[in-house]
Design goal:
Cobalt-precorrin-4 Transmethylase, domain 1, NTP-PPase_MazG-like_C, alpha/beta, elongated, single chain, Nucleoside triphosphate pyrophosphohydrolase, Helix Hairpins, NTP_PyrPHydrolase_MazG, nucleoside triphosphate diphosphatase activity, EC 3.6.1.9, Methyltransferase, Cobalt-precorrin-4 Transmethylase, Domain 2
Length: 474
């Protein structure tokens, strides 16, 4: 049988129940000699696990080894395991509790509670983490206490993690041996001494005084903009009125990606994220859905479609992973036939992109040309039909045949393995560059493009093309 006693921060923190347990004659194990003052004051014999510290490779293995020693001793006789601070904040104690049914707990003042009290922060909603377990702190919940900052290296790791989340200049409280000092977060690893009593406390920061923000702050900003008394323009919007904004922001993000400018990517990705949050807030205002529904939906989708990661499927390479994704996607959407999949391609896609996706999905059912040569023959047929429509002068027929010709060209590109949307984008970019260079050469000669004969204009174009192609920086 195992009992676990939290020793608190000061010997006076030991509860009467804990004292009686320690005086019960059971074997007493203290996590380390430096934590044994309260036990020693009772005049009882005990052993410590300092040797486990010396033989453990890292903090994770330390706690596992500590727990193993306690559980091993408990097989021979009843054991009282004493840990500093609170049982709930000691990882080795938590391991013992999970593996020892019916273990009794005599808790005391936690390291975080003591640090919060000394920093005079008494909020009910607060977070506390061991410095050795801080990777679990993924959302900037404040107030925050980080305890177990027992050396400058650990302090440096904590600083890097929190500076990224909260900002370098965030005001903090440095707590050590009951004393409190105000510091900036970037100063955490510049203090003179650290020991097992060292903790960092960060108070809550009002929204408008924050230097770093997270997703939940974005949701709060949008909520305030849409709330009574908020921004008149934001309050007047609907899903439909800002529909085009999402398309524009998405294209601006693509441009930023193409420019390989990280600053622009950050900005434009933020704008896309803002549009998504805006629509989520509009949904919440209607009582239809909210940000939690949106994030829950996308997480469920990612987990379900990645069954080769989160389930029992296997994928040895990217192609296998894509096949698993597509199969799960069809199952998720209830698509029983290829037709269901073809019809599911969004009508709002750019026409070229939609044409290629429709053709690709149809080809999976065998509805395709036998090879690229057969597809290329279709271009000639459609071009002849377009020219005939032009002769007839029927605008509707011209539009129809133009669409057929473009669709045929997409099929050829698809069968050639090209991304038609990207290919046309690059060709358009190339045309713009050649046009601008042609115009520049004409203007240098004191001429105007619209006054040139076709042959002369073509000659300028060829010169521009040669100069651009010869430019190594192109």
């Amino acid at each position: 049988m195992v009992s676990i006693v939290g020793l608190g921060i000061d010997p006076s923190d030991l509860t009467e129940g804990a004292k009686q347990e320690l005086l019960s004659g059971k074997k007493i194990i203290v996590r380390a000699e430096r934590f044994a003052a309260a036990v020693r004051a009772l005049g009882v014999s005990f052993e410590t696990l300092d040797c486990v510290y010396e033989s453990s490779r890292n903090f994770d293995s330390l706690h596992k080894n500590l727990a193993a020693r306690v559980l091993g001793a408990a097989k021979e006789r009843d054991v009282v395991y004493c840990v500093p601070g609170s049982v709930e904040e000691d990882i080795s104690a938590q391991i013992v509790l999970k593996k020892s049914r019916g273990a009794a707990v005599f808790d005391s003042v936690s390291k975080s509670a003591d640090a919060f009290r000394r920093a005079k922060i008494f909020s009910c909603n607060r977070a506390a983490y061991s410095a050795y377990d801080l990777e679990k702190y993924i959302r900037a919940v404040l107030p925050l206490c980080v305890y177990d900052i027992d050396c400058d290296l650990v302090a440096g790791d904590v600083k890097l993690k929190l500076c990224d989340m909260l900002g370098d200049e965030t005001p903090c409280f440095f707590v050590k041996n009951g004393k409190v000092k105000k510091i900036k977060l970037y100063e955490l690893d510049r203090q003179k001494e650290y020991d097992e009593t060292t903790a960092l406390v960060v108070d809550d920061t009002p929204l408008l005084k924050k230097k770093r923000f997270d997703f939940y702050d974005l949701c709060e900003v949008m909520r305030r903009l849409r709330a009574p008394g908020g921004c008149p323009w934001d309050r007047a919007q609907t899903h439909e009125s800002i529909r085009k904004n999402m398309v524009e922001e998405a294209y601006e993000l693509v441009d930023a990606i193409d420019s390989k400018d990280d600053g622009k990517i950050v900005e434009e990705a933020g704008d896309v994220l803002m549009q998504a949050v805006f629509h989520a807030q509009l949904g919440e205002d209607r009582g239809a859905f909210d940000c939690a529904d949106v994030t829950s939906g996308v997480c469920e989708k990612l987990i379900f479609r990645h069954s080769h990661i989160f389930g029992g499927d296997n994928a040895k390479n990217a192609d296998d992973a894509l096949s698993v994704w597509e199969r799960n996607k069809r199952a998720e959407k209830g698509q029983k036939t290829t037709g269901d999949s073809v019809a599911d391609v969004p009508a709002g896609f750019p026409a070229l992109l939609r044409a290629q996706k429709v053709g690709k999905r149809a080809s999976k059912a065998g509805y395709d040309f036998k090879d690229i040569e057969e597809a290329a023959e279709k271009i000639g047929e459609e071009l002849s039909e377009l020219l005939q429509a032009v002769k007839e002068g029927d605008a509707a027929h011209i539009s129809e045949e133009t669409g057929d010709l473009l669709f045929s060209a997409v099929n050829v590109g698809r069968l050639a393995g090209a991304d038609c949307e990207e290919s046309l984008h690059e060709s358009t970019k190339k045309f713009v560059a050649r046009f601008l260079k042609t115009e520049s050469l004409i203007l240098q000669d004191g001429k105007e493009m619209q006054n040139l004969a076709p042959e002369e204009l073509w000659a300028y174009y060829e010169r521009a093309k040669e100069q651009i192609d010869a430019d190594p920086s192109r």
